[in-house]
Amino acid sequence: MKEKLSSEPPLHAYRLQLEPQPFIRVTGLLGFFQPAAHRRRMSEEELVKGEDSKKEQTDKEVEKLKAERKVKRKRRLLKEAAKADKRGVCYLSRIPPRMDPIKLRQILSQFGELERIYLTPEDPSAHVHRKKAGGYRGQGFTEGWVEFTNKVVAKRTASMLNGEQIGGRKKSSFYYDLWNIKYLSKFKWDHLTEEIAYKNATREQKLELELSAAKKERDFYLAKVDQSRALSSIDERLKKRHKIQQAAGSTSEEPQAAKVTRQFPQTKPVRDNAEKKKAGLSKDVLAGVFGGS
């Protein structure tokens, strides 16, 4: 009995064999492919995590770039606003004939650095009238604005040139003309653009109103024309029908329906009966009186 007991393995050995051991490589098919699938799954998870981390990094980089662009834009706008505060605008109430923005810039750039120039063109009807009269065929201007980089220079230039002769070459067409220039304090180029945009909008609104009024008049006239055509066609049809009736011997007038007059019995008034009764009584009484006598 002792030999038999010693030959059998102990109970803890069975427990070790029965318990699953996932980390031990087995020669079977299932045991051979499980670690490779596990490795494949781990590699896929690592790839997904790596892609997510890359996306997060790219998103952060994009946000940083956007923030940097916003900061740069703000700085640029602040610089432009500071420069715009230093600028000054002069107003020209009259532009000499044959003068354009290029010539005006050439003349005024001698007194200071210029930024922008705007000259309002003349009315097209005036341009056409001047052409027909045999005058200057180029574009004319009525008024203008000139922007200087420094408002001090703009103010000094306006005070120096206002009322003075333009000068230059004697052959120029505006040699004897005078400057009509004034410095506009606290006036910026943005105000001018707003004013021009407002004027353009009002002009467009007026044009739209005029066009709508013209369309209404046209529609009313066309409606009246159609109505008159319809009435004239009706008259023509009636005339044709009348001629046909006359040719057939029928009268144009339609027979009138006979008027029905109802007669009601009239009762005689009470006054007539009373007079007859009174007359009869009086005659009888007299006959009796005279007959009895």
What does this structure look like?
- This protein is of the alpha+beta class and 293 residues long.
- Among the domains are: 56-86; 88-187, Alpha-Beta Plaits (2-Layer Sandwich), CATH 3.30.70.
- Helices cover 62% and strands 9% of the residues.
- The chain is built from eight helices and four strands; from the N terminus they run αααβαβαβαβαα.
Distance between the termini: 202 Å
Strands in their spatial order, largest beta sheet = 2-3-1-4
CATH homologous group name of the domain at 88-187: RRM (RNA recognition motif) domain
The CATH architecture of the domain at 88-187 comes to 2-Layer Sandwich
Class based on secondary structure composition and strand pairing: alpha+beta
- Average pLDDT works out at 77
CATH top level class name of the domain at 88-187? Alpha Beta
Query: Helix fraction?
Result: 55-70%
Shape: elongated
Estimated share of beta-strand residues = 5-15%
Number of separate strands: 4
Order of helices and strands: HHHEHEHEHEHH
CATH topology of the domain at 88-187, by name, is Alpha-Beta Plaits
Using the CA coordinates, give the radius of gyration. 58 Å
- Uncertain regions spanning at least 5 consecutive residues: 1-5, 22-33
The biggest sheet amounts to: 4 strands, antiparallel
The DSSP helix count reads 8
Any key phrases for this structure?
293 residues; 4-stranded antiparallel sheet; 8 helices; elongated; RNA binding; ABT1/Esf2
Secondary structure elements and pairings:
Layout: H1 2-7, H2 11-18, H3 29-86, E1 88-92, H4 101-108, E2 114-121, H5 124-132, E3 141-148, H6 151-161, E4 181-184, H7 189-248, H8 270-292
